[in-house]
Amino acid sequence: MAAMTPSARPFLNRRLAEFGTTIFAEMSALALSTGAINLGQGFPDTDGPEEIREAAVRALRDGRGNQYPPGPGVPELREAVAAHQRRRYGLAYDPGTEVLVTAGATEAIAASLLALVEPGDEVIAFEPYYDSYAASIAMAGGRRVPVTLRPHEGAFRLDLDELRDAVTDRTRLLLVNTPHNPTGTVLTRAELAEIARLAVERDLLVVTDEVYEHLAFDDAEHVPLASFPGMRERTVTIGSAGKTFSFTGWKVGWVTSTPELTGAVRSAKQFLTYVASGPFQYAVAEALALPDAYFDAFRADMRAKRDVLAAGLADAGFEVFRPAGTYFVTTDIRPLGESDGFAFCRALPERAGVVAVPNAVFYDDREAGAPFVRFAFCKRTEVLEEAAKRLKAAF
Ligand SMILES: *Cc1c(COP(=O)(O)O)cnc(C)c1O
To answer: Which of 54, 357, 362, 387 makes a 20 to 30 Å CA pair with 42?
Structure first.
């Protein structure tokens, strides 16, 4: 995984030895020292809706959430999450027993794995994987088993046979992510149906990270895994306000599942943060109740940004995997005569005034990820245009 901070090396335990600091720290430091445009880390450079920010201010002023909120989350937010799942997907969850508010999706992922995985259990995750997955599996004492998404006809695709072959008698859990960071792949209904069939057949638990549920573009459609036959009772679904409402600093996430699974995740969660983000929980409850027009406009805006950056990268000579969802576009640098994404990204700020992330950090199989580089497009259009101009001039 990421390069290690030298000072941490003598102290970091064996479970976490391979995860020093993340690549984002190194790349963001490079962005600062060189004045480069940071398209490395996936956070928006404009805040979310003003009315939602005001809702947070109001909660703070009215003394709502300034003291420990209830362990499972404030009732208003749990009800809003349940209403959102019902309205969008027809999935019914009891806000009293089947919704748990977490400190972002990151805590939901960690708490789910800590709660559900026995030491030595195998956990299957798609590779390249979001960087907290490997560390969370390791903290839980699990063994990660990557199934690699590979380029095929312009997109990274899941090989269902490979997934089936990866399941053993020791497999406890599938960790799914759709829309998928970093590749931008959105699993199709047919692929999800196959994953569901496999989970039922092999009696697996499924944790599904759906933080980009509102960012599926064009013909791509986000379908929650929990909506397939036999899945609701074995699936922990994770959502987050950060990406959908452009408030990544608020760290409000949630889990929806059965009372038993939700209770298990809560058991782990209560010893991580116990509770978090009190006043923000009230604001996110209002955000989830925004009319469809908000979600539609947000998606259209992000799609337009994707188009600007994807066109700029193609124009500069990268091979572009046009993402069907998320904040990110993955490129292949081989048409530029390059093959080592790490070296490429370390040189890019000086060379072009732009920061990107080498996808290899999201792989166990570094070779498989070597030529791929990820750029974030959740930035103002003029920033994306300037980045495109710089890249075009540099290559
Ligand atoms: C950003 C991100 C997260 C973390 O979400 P937070 O709510 O900020 O903790 C989790 N999963 C994926 C795939 C992400 O891109």
So the answer is: 54
By most ligand atoms within 8 Å of CB, the mutation choice from 211, 277, 327, 362 for ligand 1 is: 211
Contacts of 244 (CB under 8 A, 6+ apart): 211, 213, 214, 215, 287, 295, 298
Number of Cβ within a 10 Å radius of residue 224: 22
Residues whose CB falls within 8 Å of the CB of residue 190, separated by 6 or more in sequence, listed in order: none
Ligand 1: nearest atom to the Cα of 106: 9
- Degrees to nearest 5, angle at CA 297 with 156 and 280: 90
Cα 335 to averaged position of ligand 1 atoms, centre (Å): 31
The C-alpha atoms of residue 122 and residue 134 are separated, in whole angstroms, by 12
d(CA 113, CA 133): 9
Encode pLDDT of 27-71 as tens digits.
888 888 999 999 998 899 999 999 999 999 999 999 999 999 999
Question: Which parts of the chain sit beneath pLDDT 70?
Answer: 1-7
| Ligand 1 atom at minimal distance to the Cα of residue 177 | 13
Specify the length of the chain in residues. 395
Specify the pLDDT at position 344: 97
Whether 211 is in the pocket of ligand 1, judged by its Cβ within 6 Å, is yes
- Calculate how far, in angstroms, residue 210's C-alpha sits from the geometric centre of ligand 1: 9
